[in-house]
Amino acid sequence: MKILSIETSCDETGIAILESGAENTVAILGNALSSQIEIHAQYGGVFPSLAKRAHAEKITFLIQQALSDAELLEAIDQPAEDIENKLSFLDEKETDLKKHLEPFLTYYKKPDIDYIAVTVGPGLEPALWVGVNTAKALSKIWDIPVVPINHMEGHVVTAVFQRINEQDFVLAPIDTPILALLVSGGHTELVLCNELGTYEKIGQTRDDAVGEAFDKVARMLGLPYPGGPAVSKLAKEYRESFDKAQDKNPFVMPRPMMHSGDYDFSFSGIKTAMLYTIRDLTNQNTRELTDEEKMALACAFEDAAIEVLVHKTLKAIEEYGAQTVIVGGGVAGNTYLREQLGSSASKLDVTALFPEQWLATDNAVMIGMAGMLKSFSGEIKTASSDELKADGNLSL
Ligand code: KG4
Ligand code: ZN
User: Fold this and answer.
1) How far is the C-alpha of 271 from the C-alpha of 45, rounded, in Å?
2) How far apart are CA 230 and CA 219, in angstroms?
């Protein structure tokens, strides 16, 4: 069984082709991804109308690339008729998308694909609609059913598939209950899965998402967008030099809501504390921060943010008796979080699963994997064109 998957919820346009094999294995046949980082870098965050346009400009090319990698791209002998008319539902709001899809669907054959899996939310609605409308168009012309996927489920599922070789992953047996910590640019959530495929949110951020806080702090430190990897790199450098010197970091950031007694988070307080600290240090911004100060500040921020995440996750593991902890979302690529949560979980005899770095940030492989999980559990649900809608606030 083959799935073509589509991801356009934020600033990455992704198309992947996955094929299921024996015993819950999945092979990645094609994976095409285009990042909009350069477009949004100047704004320090994602600009929805620009994101929509960039998705529409790139997605058709990525479909071709992924199909070609999967050896499923075949030119047609007789150009398909009436595609323009059949895609007329795109005329009003998706003219850019139609401009590219129409020639592609006219001159290439229907590929050997069983399902189209598409992210329907949560995310930026104008961006999500590009993916949803692409799925509708492919489904209409090729007569292939569409499976709507929650982006956050994709982040959970990615960590559950374990690599067995260069191309193949396996859905390994997993001890339940599972606790999922979902940490990205738009989300910070703790989700309890009594069984894989069922989700109960037990806590979430009340203000900024942790990835968003990393991005904002990066801006304060003059680091490029997206800020997570850059802040983390400085923090690591500081921690390494600091261990040798046996010095204490002069900067300490607050740990908001760490002992709040629930599983909610707040990151805006750390961000504000950083802002005031930098203002005082630079005499109201009349001088630049030194490299040493930047490293120490990045470290103080990362220590505080990760400590809160790890503390609450461990508390939830204990309360709910979780046997496995899964981390998903862009911040799951954070090395310090991996080290801290990994070692604490192993002390509790709990298995910690992290996605590979390249699968932690948004991509279409994770959406295909969520579709595969549904098919393995016999719960693959397709949606008609009328039912397919983007929902920016879709919850797990
Ligand atoms: O999941 P993702 O690709 O997109 C969203 O759905 O939001 O997550 C992107 C977020 C950005 O805020 C980025 O700064 C953060 O993940 N991020 C990191 C790291 N890598 C990416 N944050 C901390 N440390 C990292 N290594
Ligand atoms: Zn994401």
Assistant:
1) 16
2) 10
Q: Residue 238: CB within 6 Å of ligand 1?
A: no
pLDDT band at 243 (very low <50, low <70, confident <90, very high): low
pLDDT level of residue 41 (50, 70, 90 thresholds) = confident
The two tokens of residue 305 are 């943010």
337 CA closest ligand 1 atom index = 24
The finding on whether 225 has its CB within 6 A of some atom of ligand 1 is: no
Query: Using CA atoms, how far apart are residues 322 and 42, in angstroms rounded to an integer?
Result: 42
The rounded Å distance from CA 46 to ligand 1 centre is 12
pTM of the model: 0.94
Q: Which helix (H) or strand (E) holds 238?
A: helix 227-245
Would you say 365 and 5 are in contact if contact means Cβ atoms under 8 Å apart? Answer: yes
Question: How far is residue 12's CA from residue 37's CA, in Å, rounded to a whole number?
Answer: 8
Contact 128, 120 (CB under 8 A): yes
Question: From start to end of the chain, where are the E strands?
Answer: 2-7, 12-20, 25-35, 115-121, 146-150, 161-163, 168-171, 178-183, 188-193, 200-204, 324-328, 351-353
First to last CA, the chain: 26
User: Is the distance from the beta carbon of residue 228 to the nearest atom of ligand 1 less than 6 Å?
Assistant: yes
Measured in residues, the chain has a length of: 396
Rounded Cα–Cα distance for residues 196 and 160 (Å): 9
pLDDT tens across 330-371, in order?
999 999 999 999 999 999 999 999 999 999 999 999 999 999
Give the residue, out of 331, 339, 367, with the most ligand 1 atoms within 8 A of its beta carbon, to mutate for a pocket test: 331
Q: Are strands 115-121 and 178-183 parallel, antiparallel or unpaired?
A: unpaired
